[in-house]
Amino acid sequence: MLTCQRCLEPVSVDVEAEVNLAMVLNEEQAKNLPRYYDPLIVEAEDVELLSLIEDELILSLPLVAYHDDCSVQTSFGDADEAARTQKDKPNPFSVLAELKKADKS
Ligand SMILES: [Zn+2]
């Protein structure tokens, strides 16, 4: 359950994560894995899969959630507007791009 950003009521969101884990014993083995596997270095006999899956799911959560049929309008206008504003925000990495340009000249 997440909070709907329009009406602030709970909204249920399906989360899905695709995980390609390969268990390895050390860094060396991890390096030799095909790229589509995420290495899981197993040092102890017990592997905490639960927290691992939890992390993956948290990472795949949407940043904002809305009810599909939410009727409440925010004071900022509709959600599309909010999304547009979000897009207009400068990319934090654009600063890096500027630095790179300055470097070359
Ligand atoms: Zn809502």
Task: List low-confidence stretches.
Answer: none
Distance between the termini: 51 Å
Structural class: alpha+beta
- Adjacency order of strands in the biggest sheet: 1-2
Give me the oligomer status: single chain
The secondary-structure element order is: EEEHEHHH
What is the percent of helical residues?
25-40%
Count up the helices. 4
Overall pLDDT, averaged?
80
The amount of beta strand, in percent, is 5-15%
- What integer value in Å does the Rg equal? 21 Å
Number of strands: 4
Q: Main β-sheet: number of strands, strand sense, barrel status?
A: 2 strands, antiparallel
Q: Quick one: overall form?
A: flat
Which distinct ligands sit in these coordinates?
zinc ion
Structure description:
There is one protein chain. This protein has 105 residues and is an alpha+beta fold. The strands form 2 sheets. Strands 1-2 form a two-stranded antiparallel ribbon. Bound molecules: zinc ion (ZN). The site of zinc ion has 9 residues, from loops.
Secondary structure layout:
Elements: E1 2-3, E2 10-11, E3 21-24, H1 27-31, E4 38-41, H2 49-59, H3 79-88, H4 94-104
Parallel strand pairs: 3-4
Antiparallel strand pairs: 1-2
The structure holds zinc ion (ZN).
Give me a quick take on this structure.
The protein is α+β, with helices and mostly antiparallel strands and 105 residues long. It has helices at residues 27-31, 49-59, 79-88, 94-104; strands spanning 2-3, 10-11, 21-24, 38-41. The structure holds zinc ion.
